[in-house]
């Protein structure tokens, strides 16, 4: 969002009253703005350049205000004050008019056909008898810069030129010439330069060098002359010094050259409407005539007012309020949109002024009505539709893989999604044209030129940055890559990839291959050529010849693994062998990550239809329970209904996360539709009511929420039906309970004798000493002295590391529920005199 800096005292003086910082912050919020910062020029310079540079700066308080990017009318003090005063009903929105010159002819701007090659469009207007002060002049210049950076897209679409009309004479000619044929004295310079010399001069200018590329490579440059051949400007670079405006300027000629005519009209309208209030006839703008190469003539500025009609019901429904048509018209008028009811039902006629080019749809008008009404004044209501949140299947699979890959001894890395062209092409021995990469049109740095098409460069750069860490380095990443895809509406798609690298003194292809097998085991894909996965030799310039394999799952290629080519390793500034694995994990979902898995969404259980027995008619669905008494209280009373409403404040259902028989039972206990005041209960009631046709299919309940009456009344009940003493039934119930408990005890005893399945894992540990003087036999004794329930030590051997140093490689078998790798590593590294570090070399489930 653009930020407008205004002097606090000047702002308050224009508003006609003084506010505290808190009051003005609240006013900005009500108007849809944000007071971003309260500072001063001195404080800004001190913060950015140091206290020494800020010694002579002003201490005047500045308000930094964030405004919406499409509200061009609020980018200066004049528009901001005008909008706030209309919003507070202190001022009526002014009406802007285009007038003809009182004396002399209309100023004309003639466009020649040569401009078609660079900037074919131009518009113009005159601010007649304007009065500038220092503050007004600064605001005028600052608005030009704000527009240049915003709607003008850094002058690439529109460039604004302002000139002292009394120093030049019309008609004016807008043409294009070769740079060597253009010569004039540019703004704030003391001598004339050719256009070619100006391009060289401004290459070191901190402000203008950003605009040189717009016309630098063009065969001709745009230029504007007056009738005497005086250069007004060379858009979009610089104005001429001859026609520069000052505090004494009375008549301002404004021209806008552009590649987009609509944007040029908008910019011109904003410029003249904001500062026409300082003319001798406020809010009037003198017209100018623009003649096109084909002879067509247009009068500018347009200052067009247009009218739109919409219904009050539309605004009430979209905003969530209930206001009469007259009130809505008043709200819109406060936002500088003059509105009034037409009398045809609830129809409202809205007039859009030339200062509001942001209003292009009925929704924009509705938004302004919501701002004027006050977002804090809109009553919070529960949405009529609601859903059960669920994790994307691709993200769920990613999280599961991340945990198990970390348990396998690999460290996760997270790299940037953008990279350089060199990273995904030259460094991997590939051509950029073969990568299907999405290019950034205007990259800020060479490091972020394209969206990555592979995760491998990021991991290799991470390894290069951590070369001093103890070997081996085992890294993995599961993230998205971006690939071109013409079938998508945006021309590209995301693809979730898994990549792992092993960097050591030996290539370690068997480690990467083992990681692939472990990953497939986790994904429940068996090693088989047709119905599982397999690898076969492949050629890839990124990998060493003969050391690359392609991964196939169900006959489809999903990735590759192998030993990286020495050229690739060298280009990433690495010096040791490296093996890598990269594959697509989306095929393991059965479809792309953009599609939801329906079986992951909580679904209502289905109950198989059981046909009625012969001789028995099918029982009708049970009617409402005889009782309204529930665990929440009696639902016939307001207290009971309120208790249920409070219970449902943060719940969608009475029990669990899907509709069940518990909801049906409580629904039947509610005697009638709940009132509007109990919004949570009413929301739940309407939702459960929608299940009436298949309520019998809802899952059964675990808890009884409705309390049945002790003595249900019946018109057909007789005295014989009431057992006042309950002797035989109670005795029978007690006997049934005893038999049930006995059978449960027998089942529990039988189940306890069945041996439980014990999950075990085989772990291979690398235990490294401090130096070559460490007693390795003593080190092994220390390791084997670690005793834990569920731990069994196996064979061991000493392997050379380098420079006479050896490491102990020892195997063990652990019970997963009793011994974890973290606990085991902590116990071994406790022998600090002998052990430097412990790494998990291999981890396999038994």
UniProtKB/TrEMBL annotation:
GO annotation, biological process: phenylalanyl-tRNA aminoacylation
Gene3D superfamilies: 1.20.1050.130, 3.30.56.10, 3.30.70.60, Bira Bifunctional Protein, Domain 2, Phenylalanyl-trna Synthetase, Chain B, domain 3
Cofactor: Mg(2+)
Keyword Lipoprotein: no
Location(s) in or outside the cell: Cytoplasm
Main location: cytoplasm
GO molecular function: ATP binding; magnesium ion binding; phenylalanine-tRNA ligase activity; RNA binding; translation elongation factor activity
Xref: Pfam families: B3_4, B5, EF-1_beta_acid, EF1_GNE, PhetRS_B1, tRNA_synthFbeta
UniProt entry tagged with the keyword rRNA-binding: no
Enzyme Commission code: 6.1.1.20
Domain B5 span(s) in chain numbering: 303-380
Any Gene Ontology CC annotation: phenylalanine-tRNA ligase complex
Keyword vocabulary terms for this entry: Aminoacyl-tRNA synthetase, ATP-binding, Cytoplasm, Elongation factor, Ligase, Magnesium, Metal-binding, Nucleotide-binding, Protein biosynthesis
Family of this protein: Belongs to the phenylalanyl-tRNA synthetase beta subunit family. Type 2 subfamily. Belongs to the EF-1-beta/EF-1-delta family.
Role summary: Catalytic subunit of the guanine nucleotide exchange factor (GEF) (eEF1B subcomplex) of the eukaryotic elongation factor 1 complex (eEF1). Stimulates the exchange of GDP for GTP on elongation factor 1A (eEF1A), probably by displacing GDP from the nucleotide binding pocket in eEF1A.
Subunit-level organization: EF-1 is composed of 4 subunits: alpha, beta (alpha subunit of the eEF1B subcomplex), delta (beta subunit of the eEF1B subcomplex), and gamma (gamma subunit of the eEF1B subcomplex). Interacts with elongation factor EEF1A1.
Name recorded for this polypeptide: Elongation factor 1-beta
Organism of provenance: Oryzias melastigma
